Amino acid sequence: MDRVALLTAGVALVVSGCSSDTADGAGSAGAAATASRPAASKVAEPSRALVKWAGQMCEATELFETMRTDSAIGVEDISDPPADALIGAEFTAMGYLWDTSSSLDEVVEGLDAVRPSGIAAADRLHGDLSKEVARVRPKVTALSDSSEHTSPAEDSVDRAERVGRLIASLKIPEPDLAAVAAQEPKLSAAYGAAPECAPPGPLPKAADGTDLGACADGACEILVTKKVHLRVGAWKVRVSLTETKATVRNDGSEGGVGEIWLSTGGTGTFGEGGGDELTAKAIAVNRDGAVLNFRAKS
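^ that's the sequence the OP posted. Answer follows.
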């Protein structure tokens, strides 16, 4: 939302007609013109504190929404694993439980950092969202804790599915932040000024676009928007996505296998020192896809 500045300019009223030669006549006309001119007004620039508040709330809300989306994708991979899944559902579930519990902790930390704004509707939204998260957090934490089990994988699929249902039950309170801001001029200006509240920018341009064939020679930079299989030099690679990370799985040039999870700026390497290696770097990852750089060497 762009910052809104409202400026009401006064308009002078010009009075025409017969005039008196007397000083009183001239004074009356001047008084009429002055009385008809409204005073100029302007919405003040938002305070730094309110801009900070809006930014923190936008950030916490984004973490909340991303957690829900990534959780749904993760549960689907557990309950309906792909035919080429590298590891059993129990181990996929273990990773899901750790990731989801950590993501929920990040949401809580983000909300805890938000101080009162002084705007009743805004503070009510913050309180309601904090209560919504607190409603499921103890259960998610308990289900994600494997210390009471013989092994971390014990019952992990069942526990992951239960956590998935808890996360899916989370809802953003209404009215949401954008709606609250629209009704509060000071908050609306702060919302528009906070960088965290701006729509996500587009992914950077990938040197090789969506051409998976460009990776065949062992070096490429591609845009991925859905699950794909490709070959990078001698390596067979599969890429799958969530809103925040790209999962790169390989079959290895000599039969080895592995998976790495990359968020924006992340880098991972398959292989051993002195032998064949494949390095993957996430240039950027968001809800629209990922720009990934691959380099193979032998």
